[in-house]
Task: structure prediction
Amino acid sequence: MTRMPRWADVALIPLLNLVIAFAISALVILAIGENPWEALKIMVSGALGSSYGWGFTLYYATSFVFTGLAVAIASHAGLFNIGGEGQATLGGLGVALICLSLPWPHWSLALLAASLGAAAFGAAWAAIPAWLQAKRGSHIVITTIMFNFIGASLLNYMLVNVMRPVGSMDPASARFPEGATLPTLNDMAAGLGFVWGKNTPANVSFFIALLCCLGVWALIWKTRLGYQIRAFGKSEPAAVYAGISPVRITMYAMLISGGLAGLMAINNVMGEAERLVLNAVEGAGFIGIAVALMGRNHPFGVLLAALLFGFLYQGGGELALWTTIPRELITVIQALVILFTGALDNMVRAPVERLFARRGIR
Result:
């Protein structure tokens, strides 16, 4: 049978899935009495039509890049890490403890230390389910889901009983010292002599996310460990026959995955809130699953998918502000994207494969 060309698998099929999801979303918008074309224009102008919109789009996309990469790394090892929410939550705790521990003289030192803390806490939270999978046979999906709730409860306890400033009723940590404040993209643009993204939370962690994309690509396709991860994910018996340790690969893949999810906290906790608050992750760990699915677990695909979901988040906010379309409709659109890129992927893939087979295209 003629195989479908690689470009069709990584670009054409996701694009067709996206078009179908948006088409159905347009029908839903039409059914509630709104104009889909006007709604699309509002979303595009609100998310991409100004530096203000771009600032928020990139801020959301940054978080989704981290959690998407976390899911992608685990997927290459044949593991479904659904615990990005909890790992990012613990990453936020690591960032807060680091930032509040010292009067940091410069943001760059604070960023380096906080990144290590975020990655370490996220990796530690992923290590327990990984060990249970590798040594005890516990299913990684079940344990990572459980650890999402445990992580949320642990954060609640820490903020209410340990980290809350004396006299404060707000379940949040103290504000980070000035030396731990990350420069925003607007600050960086001002240093170059122009205004961009004023009053938006997009910050220097966006560039950290891009570096992580490059690092994950190099790890997976250019290193021995990456080859072992992919081999293990394709066939565990074959990997074992080749001398690859399932315990070692499971632990390494999940540690890296948890570390990447934890790194998300430098964006939302250190870069935006500048303190640790309840529910700081706001579902980004679960969005990372959709981002990885749509990006085909490739770092470049994850980046593009993260930008798409960042667009949906910011554009959806503008849509709810200027029309009678409820904010929840964006959740519907996200669900449709997830549905068609995940569960119903074969509905599009099968006819496309038959088309290429008939034409003999490779």
In short: The first helix runs from residue 6 to 31.
